[in-house]
Amino acid sequence: MSDFEGLRALVTGGASGIGRATAELLAARGAQVAVLDLDPSTVDEPLLAYRADVTDDTSVRQAVAAAAAGLGGLDVLVNNAGIGARGTVEDNPDDEWHRVFDVNVLGMVRTARACLPHLRASAHAAIVNTCSVAATAGLPQRALYSATKGAVYSLTLAMAADHVREGIRVNCVNPGTVDTPWVGRLLDAADDPAAERAALEARQPTGRLVDAAEVAGAIAYLASPLSGATTGTALAVDGGMQGL
Ligand code: NAD
């Protein structure tokens, strides 16, 4: 097996942004890839596409079972589906906290739970969670979102410990601000989109937003046997935002 040839991968949130770039990169390198998304209508061959809502355990179980059957097994889960949230602790009511945690944290838990029996049967099993620089950077106006990504970071470390002896590696990527449709929507909603974009660019020492393909490259590395001795780590893809 080359590093990607023959790998069977499931990418959640794979119809857009980081997930889409990851699904396309893995497929281009020879992996067989299935996408799980709320709206997979734009996903084309050779990617397999399955509709599911990660807040609905039954739909996740059904989609994962169908994807594993379609791929003939599972080696890789890219746990990537997620949503944003703005504001301080005073801005979002409890039900909004529950809603965003349900997608960003429990969504990853449900998907991992459904995938683990399949991953145990793989010789190259890996889970990569899409976390965020927000998990550790202390970003303003991101209390709820940051808390969900802090949970994803801790979940990654705990899962790595739980499953390492089963041969399943668990890592995460911590992107900075990535040029995806999500960030496009965020900019569209700003009073001054150009000024908001400039502020986001200035926050990263590289002076530009991260490209979704650059996050996909990091995820692909952590998903493949190239990183076979690496588990329980967070790989920053943040234009030097933390650490420089
Ligand atoms: P995006 O909005 O472009 O894509 C997200 C995808 O997830 C969409 O296809 C959407 O349909 C799907 N999705 C959302 N809720 C879902 C649900 N309940 N069930 C199934 N699918 C669902 O977003 P993106 O920017 O590519 O973000 C992907 C991940 O990257 C998220 O976890 C996000 O927190 C993380 N992230 C993004 C950035 C950024 O700046 N864009 C930075 C750090 C981390």
From TrEMBL:
* Root EC class: oxidoreductase
PROSITE patterns referenced in this protein's UniProt entry, alphabetically: ADH_SHORT (PS00061)
Task: Note whether Oxidoreductase occurs among the keywords.
Answer: yes
Question: What EC identifiers does the entry list?
Answer: 1.1.1.-
| Keyword check for Hydrolase | no
Check the record and name the InterPro entries matching this protein: NAD(P)-bd_dom_sf (IPR036291), Sc_DH/Rdtase_CS (IPR020904), SDR_DHRS6-like (IPR051122), SDR_fam (IPR002347)
Keywords, comma-separated and alphabetical: Oxidoreductase
GO MF, any single term = oxidoreductase activity
A Pfam family this chain is assigned to? adh_short_C2
Its family remark reads: Belongs to the short-chain dehydrogenases/reductases (SDR) family.
Name used for this protein in its record:
SDR family NAD(P)-dependent oxidoreductase
